């Protein structure tokens, strides 16, 4: 049992606890903060899986922007009185989730992982170690390549160039879309409860 | 001869041009709307003349062999035919290709001549008769269309083309009968004409279908060849023959489909003259002549044809005895004469039947034109479109006032009665000879009696209308105008020349018609006298040589006994009419009152119309009502409404799924994915493709 | 180091927690948070598989980058909609947004 595995299990447990907190706690702000914790811990998990660039992206994007965005949204939509956080039907949801979890775990455990072999990808031939893989496949540091910024960058701009461009277009669309949707108009200023609309004034 | 197709094309072109350009222009007296039509029909006369002369030179039996390079197919009637265009492809349905073919033979040439000659004179007459009418231009448009269709009909060489032209002719007849459709009766008459002929046409079409199914073609020569070779089952030949004959029954007004012809007199007189006496109604006889090999191949069919013709001849003649309206008398006379022709064809006297068609066209058209002239004059006394103007008993003494009309009418009536040496004598005599030669004594007897009756009622009309006192003075003074529809706007519907008043000429009396109307009368009188001289048996009979069936029948001479018998029958009729109506030695009303049922039966046309109306009211409409109720209650309620109510009920229950709450939807979403997962796990070896 | 199936189980747990959050939470913003949890779990799954199947090519990692990108975009739009709804109706309670109800 090496340090990496131990670290993984510890961090994984922490992430699970944090996530449980996100969905179970009664305070919205606590939810948001626990979400930040969960996402950050996941970033650490990425680090343990030797993709440091991905961990960086995770922290930057999720913790840095998504969480802040969520907190802003929470603040902008303050309830006037204390609201109950969960539905009436939450036992059903819990049951369903447990069932789904059981199904997923069962499928995972029941799979023959030994028969799964690495394949050749577009970035280059991989080391075929199918014969030397033991019964439960392990990923060893010397087998998995480290994916730092250079490797990611190369891949993004050569093999995955088209999805990259499409993703940038999607981001543009999302930007414009959210601008349009969230824009203030005269009608809503009347209906808004105590919220001052943006300084833009009426619709153009 | 190759340009005979110009005739229908010219007239069709005139129709189009008239419709596009000739809406009533100019003043009320303008003749503008008629120029295209009259020009076209005169052009068709030229076409006929050229075709005729060419055929004289080149078409058997007068001309030499064909030097055009076109084939002379073994003709259907034993006389040569010259193909105009052979198999113009029309369209293809599955394995069947439908062609259109036209040909010229002596029968077509004869019809071409009759139609173009009569149509041009009648259209010129129409220029005068219809002057000032609101829809002057439309009249000539439909007349042109009719002529185009008629020409196509006589030139067609395959049954489908003929049927198309047949229907088109029927349509034009409908349009023309109902020309003054503002008055309800005219529209009803047009409808009646169309529907009655339709009944015949349905039979015709079914017959064509039967022929097509059994021979695989619509072309006449191919069908006749098949029949001759015996490749068609004799029963089929009979059935097809009777069915095709039904078309002739409808179109030529044979019993029992004769009811439309008298009512068709509601149309303008030029229409009655051209369409309903000389040409369209002759189309039925023409069809029988065209398809003669089909009929001749079956004795049953021939018997049916002969019977129908004979019954019609005497049936209509008896009705004509009691009619008062001049046009109705002439209409029943037409029906009767058509019966003559059909009977002649039925007993096998092919040339005689066609010859009678030829001569009848002339004198009947002349009779109608004279009737129009008389009515036109009487309308000057009684008022326009007044029903009183049609009744011969409201006329009188017209002989001195309208000499041209009188003399031409007399010539035509003598011709119709079969008095030598006028045209009608020769054709009637031929028919009688034909009946005698084939041993049909019953037919001969009935036809002789009918000849007697024909002469009688014609001269009854002459004596009552043209001789005697000026009855119209008394009638105009004592009776009121009898339009059958009162509303004032009817008068606007027929805005004749400025005089919307009635009886302005009561003091002057009826006058002779203007030259535009009188000239055609004189011109048509010439063939009414002379047309018969084309087929004098044994002396000069080019007509018979050109138009015959089978081997040319060369009569050796006049059959004197029959000739004298026929003439006697005619003279007896004239004599009886004279002593009844001119010097009243016999009182007709006394005779009528002696046998009221018989008289009433004749007066009411044997109640045929009433019978048909009863059938329609009780049987046809009853069945229709049943069908409608069945459709509503059984089919609509159960088949249509019930499943729709199920759909509505299902929708009503299903709408509870739409809770409007997103998490419910998310739940359903996840459940769905779970199910997909389950299915994929349950079938581990199946390739799931998500494309 | 760690067997792949352990990582997969971990991601499955995260996913199901997120699923529960989506179905059980009433506040719209909290629902979006739970969606982020789910997407995060997906990314972990992808990376695990990438290390297992494609250790040299790293296609799963790149896929995960895209997932994060799209998740962020989607969150932005989702929050814009939530804000809009809040302004119009005064509340982000998803139970109250049921105009499409029968």
Architecture overview:
- The complex is a heterotrimer of chains A (204), B (691) and C (102).
- Chain A has helices at 3-24, 28-48, 52-76, 90-109, 149-158, 161-182, 186-191.
- With 204 residues, chain A is mainly α.
- Chain A is globular.
- Mean pLDDT of chain A is 78; it is low at 122-142 and 194-204.
- Chain B has helices at 6-21, 35-58, 106-129, 136-155, 159-177, 184-215, 220-228, 234-251, 260-263, 269-290, 292-296, 299-320, 326-347, 350-382, 398-401, 403-417, 423-437, 441-466, 471-478, 489-493, 515-530, 542-546, 560-582, 588-594, 596-603, 608-654, 662-682; strands at residues 81-93, 96-105.
- A two-stranded antiparallel ribbon of chain B has the order 1-2.
- In chain B, strand 1 (81-93) and strand 2 form a beta hairpin.
- In chain B, helix 6 (184-215) runs antiparallel to helix 8.
- Chain B is globular.
- With 102 residues, chain C is mostly helical.
- Chain C is 76% helix and 0% strand.
- The longest helix of chain C is centred in the C-terminal third of the chain and has 31 residues, at 59-89.
- Chain C starts with a helix and ends in a 13-residue tail after the last helix.
- The model of chain C has no long low-confidence stretch (mean pLDDT 89).
- Chains in contact: A-B, A-C, B-C.
Question: What keyword list fits this structure?
Answer:
heterotrimer, A: 204 residues, mainly alpha, 62% helix, globular, disordered C terminus, C: 102 residues, 3 helices
| Number of helical regions of chain A | 7
The number of strands of chain B is 2
Give unreliable regions of chain A as ranges.
122-142, 194-204
Order of helices and strands of chain B: HHEEHHHHHHHHHHHHHHHHHHHHHHHHH
Q: Mean of residue pLDDT of chain B?
A: 80
Largest sheet of chain B: 2 strands, antiparallel
User: For this entry, what is the oligomeric state of its chains?
Assistant: heterotrimer
Q: Please report which band the strand proportion of chain B falls in: under 5%, 5-15%, 15-25%, 25-35%, 35-45% or over 45%.
A: under 5%
Shape of chain A: globular
**Helix count from the secondary structure assignment of chain B:** 27
Helix fraction bin of chain A:
55-70%
Topology:
The complex is a heterotrimer of chains A (204), B (691) and C (102).
Chain A: H1 3-24, H2 28-48, H3 52-76, H4 90-109, H5 149-158, H6 161-182, H7 186-191
Chain B: H1 6-21, H2 35-58, E1 81-93, E2 96-105, H3 106-129, H4 136-155, H5 159-177, H6 184-215, H7 220-228, H8 234-251, H9 260-263, H10 269-290, H11 292-296, H12 299-320, H13 326-347, H14 350-382, H15 398-401, H16 403-417, H17 423-437, H18 441-466, H19 471-478, H20 489-493, H21 515-530, H22 542-546, H23 560-582, H24 588-594, H25 596-603, H26 608-654, H27 662-682
Helix pairs in contact in B: 1-2, 1-4, 2-3, 2-4, 3-4, 3-10, 3-14, 3-21, 4-5, 4-10, 5-6, 5-10, 6-8, 8-10, 8-12, 10-13, 10-14, 12-13, 12-18, 13-14, 13-17, 13-18, 14-16, 14-17, 14-21, 16-18, 16-21, 17-23, 18-23
Chain C: H1 4-24, H2 28-53, H3 59-89
Helix pairs in contact in C: 1-2, 2-3
């Amino acid at each position: 049992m090496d340090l990496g595995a131990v670290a993984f299990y510890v961090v994984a447990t922490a992430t699970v606890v944090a996530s449980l907190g996100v969905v179970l706690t009664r305070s919205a702000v606590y939810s948001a903060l626990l979400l930040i914790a969960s996402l950050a811990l996941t970033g650490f998990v990425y680090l343990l899986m030797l993709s440091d660039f991905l961990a960086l992206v995770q922290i930057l994007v999720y913790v840095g922007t998504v969480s802040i965005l969520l907190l802003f949204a929470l603040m902008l939509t303050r309830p006037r009185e204390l609201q109950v956080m969960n539905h009436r039907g939450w036992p059903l949801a819990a049951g369903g989730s447990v069932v789904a979890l059981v199904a997923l775990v069962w499928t995972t455990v029941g799979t023959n992982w030994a028969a799964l072999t690495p394949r050749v990808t577009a970035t280059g031939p991989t080391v075929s170690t199918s014969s030397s893989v033991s019964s439960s496949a392990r990923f060893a540091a010397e087998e998995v390549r480290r994916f730092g910024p250079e490797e990611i960058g190369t891949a993004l701009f050569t093999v995955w160039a088209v999805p990259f461009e499409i993703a940038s277009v999607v981001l543009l669309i999302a930007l414009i879309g959210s601008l349009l949707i969230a824009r203030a108009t005269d009608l809503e200023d009347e209906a808004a409860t105590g919220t001052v609309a943006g300084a833009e004034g009426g619709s153009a | 001869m190759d340009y005979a197709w110009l005739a229908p094309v010219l007239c069709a072109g005139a129709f189009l041009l008239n419709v596009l350009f000739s809406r009533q222009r100019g003043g009320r007296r303008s003749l503008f709307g008629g120029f295209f039509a009259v020009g076209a029909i005169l052009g068709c006369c030229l076409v006929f003349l050229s075709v005729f002369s060419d055929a004289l030179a080149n078409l058997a039996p007068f001309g030499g062999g064909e030097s055009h390079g076109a084939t002379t197919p073994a003709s259907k009637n034993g006389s040569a035919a010259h193909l105009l265009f052979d198999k113009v492809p029309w369209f293809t349905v599955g394995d069947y290709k439908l062609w259109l073919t036209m040909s010229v033979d002596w029968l077509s040439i004869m019809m071409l001549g009759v139609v173009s000659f009569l149509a041009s004179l009648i259209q010129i007459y129409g220029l005068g008769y219809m002057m000032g009418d609101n829809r002057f231009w439309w009249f000539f448009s439909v007349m042109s269309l009719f002529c185009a269709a008629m020409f196509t009909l006589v030139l067609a060489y395959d049954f489908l083309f003929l049927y198309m032209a047949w229907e088109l002719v029927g349509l034009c007849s409908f349009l023309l009968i109902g020309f003054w459709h503002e008055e309800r009766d005219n529209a009803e008459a047009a409808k009646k004409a169309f529907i009655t002929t339709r009944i015949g046409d349905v039979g015709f079409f079914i017959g064509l279908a039967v022929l097509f199914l059994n021979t695989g073609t619509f072309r006449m020569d191919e069908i006749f060849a098949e029949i001759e070779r015996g490749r068609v089952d004799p029963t089929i030949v009979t059935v097809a023959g009777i069915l095709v004959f039904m078309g002739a029954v409808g179109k030529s007004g044979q019993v029992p489909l004769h009811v439309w012809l008298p009512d068709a007199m509601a149309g303008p007189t030029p229409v009655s003259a051209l369409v309903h006496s000389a040409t369209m109604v002759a189309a039925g006889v023409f069809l029988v002549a065209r398809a003669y090999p089909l009929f001749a191949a079956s004795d049953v069919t021939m018997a049916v044809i002969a019977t129908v013709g004979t019954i019609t001849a005497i049936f209509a003649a008896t009705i004509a005895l009691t009619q008062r309206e001049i046009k109705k008398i002439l209409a029943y006379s037409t029906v009767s004469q058509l019966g003559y022709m059909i009977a002649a064809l039925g007993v096998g006297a092919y040339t005689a039947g066609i010859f009678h068609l030829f001569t009848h066209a002339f004198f009947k058209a002349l009779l109608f034109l004279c009737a129009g002239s008389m009515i036109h004059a009487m309308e000057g006394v009684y008022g326009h479109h007044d029903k009183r103007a049609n009744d011969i008993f409201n006329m009188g003494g017209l002989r001195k006032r309208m000499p041209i009309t009188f003399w031409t009418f007399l010539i035509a009536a003598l011709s119709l009665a079969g008095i030598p040496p006028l045209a009608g004598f020769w054709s009637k005599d031929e028919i009688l000879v034909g009946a005698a030669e084939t041993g049909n004594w019953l037919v001969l007897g009935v036809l002789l009696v009918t000849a007697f009756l024909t002469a009688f009622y014609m001269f009854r009309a002459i004596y009552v209308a043209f001789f005697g006192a000026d009855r119209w003075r008394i009638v105009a003074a004592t009776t009121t105008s009898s339009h059958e529809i009162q509303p004032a706007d009817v008068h606007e519907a027929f805005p004749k020349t400025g005089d919307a008043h009635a009886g302005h000429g009561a003091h002057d009396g009826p006058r002779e018609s203007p030259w535009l109307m009188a000239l055609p009368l004189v011109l048509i009188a010439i063939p009414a006298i002379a047309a018969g001289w084309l087929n004098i048996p044994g002396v000069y009979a080019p007509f018979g040589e050109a138009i015959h069936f089978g081997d040319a029948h060369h009569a050796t001479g006049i059959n004197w006994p029959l000739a004298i018998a026929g003439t006697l029958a005619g003279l007896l009729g004239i004599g009886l009419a004279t002593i009844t109506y001119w010097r009243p030695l016999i009182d007709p009303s006394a005779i009528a009152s002696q046998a009221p049922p018989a008289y009433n039966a004749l007066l009411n046309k044997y109640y045929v119309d009433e019978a048909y109306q009863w059938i329609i009211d009780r049987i046809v409409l009853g069945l229709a009502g049943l069908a409608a109720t069945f459709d509503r209650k059984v089919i609509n309620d159960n088949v249509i409404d019930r499943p729709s109510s199920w759909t509505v009920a299902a929708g009503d229950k299903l709408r509870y799924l739409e809770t409007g709450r997103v998490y419910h939807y998310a739940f359903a979403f996840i459940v769905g994915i779970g199910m997909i997962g389950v299915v994929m796990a349950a079938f581990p070896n199946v390739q799931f493709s998500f494309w | 180091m760690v067997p792949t199936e352990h990582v997969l189980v971990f991601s499955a747990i995260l996913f199901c927690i997120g699923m529960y959050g989506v179905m059980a939470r009433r506040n719209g913003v909290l629902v979006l948070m739970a969606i982020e949890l789910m997407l995060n779990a997906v990314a972990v799954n992808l990376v695990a598989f990438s290390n297992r199947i494609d250790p040299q090519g790293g296609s799963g990692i790149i896929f995960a980058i895209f997932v994060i990108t799209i998740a962020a975009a989607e969150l932005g739009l989702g929050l814009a909609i939530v804000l809009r709804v809040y302004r119009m109706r005064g509340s982000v309670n998803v139970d109250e947004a049921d105009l499409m109800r029968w």
